[in-house]
Amino acid sequence: MEGTQQETINAVRFNQDKQCFVVSTSHGLKVFSTETFNVTFVRDFEGGIKFAELLNRTNIFGFVGTGQNQAYPSTRLVLWNDV
To answer: What is the pTM of this model?
Structure first.
């Protein structure tokens, strides 16, 4: 397709109890269950996410952007509550 950029993986991190893992990509982040390997959550962020952490099994994330979007620079930790 013209004008679409292929999604790339930047980092993969497990949560504290290893029941989920978060995948940081060039488009945003995705959370997977380790039991079923199903996607349980997807959030797109313009410019992508460099790396992210999921707090236990909550809706709270800490992430650092790739720097391609000024709202999510690569020098700032963002705490995100996705309620």
So the answer is: 0.88
